[in-house]
Amino acid sequence: MCDEMLRGLGKWLRIAGYDTAIAEPGSADRQILEMAAKEQRLLITRDRDLARQRLARGRVLLLSEQGMAAWAAELKRKLGIDWLYRPFSRCLLCNCPLCPGPGPLASLLPEHIVRDPDACWHCPTCMKPYWAGSHVRRMRNRLRRWAMNDSDAKV
Questions:
Q1: In which residue ranges of the chain is pLDDT below 50?
Q2: Were both Cys, which of 49, 64, 123, 127 would link to 91 (CB 3.0–4.6 Å)?
Q3: Single pTM value for the model
Q4: C-alpha dihedral over 60, 66, 69, 71, to 10 degrees?
C-alpha cells in the first residue's frame, strides 16, 4: 500500500503487476494504518511522522531516497521487487487483475485493436479498456531499466 504522497509509485507497482492499494487523498494517518492492517499490507511512505505512530510498527516501510528511480531501486533492494513481475496485468485505476479482450467498452478502442482481441485487455470492475499503444514500449523500457537497477531510469 502506498500513502497519498507516493501515488505515482503505487501506479508503477500496479504497472509491474503488484497488488497495490493507494490511500485516498486526504485520508487520516490512522485510517491509512488501519486499512493496511486490515488488509495485511505493508504501507510504503516517506512520511516520518506516519512511520513513527504506534500502529505503524512492523507495518511501514519508510523510503529514504528521493525520486521515482531511487524509490524503485530502494524497493528492489529492500523488498526484492521484481519490476518485470507481471507487467500490465492490473488496472491502474482500481488495482483489479485485467481480463483479456476489449470488454464492454470496445467502442472506445481503435478499430485495429478490437479486431485483434489478443492485443487488448479490460478491467472487469471499472470496465477501463487497455491496449498496447506506443506508450507501453516506453513504460516497458523503464521497468527493464529499474529491473536492472539502472540509476539513469528516471520518471
A1: 151-155
A2: 123
A3: 0.91
A4: -10
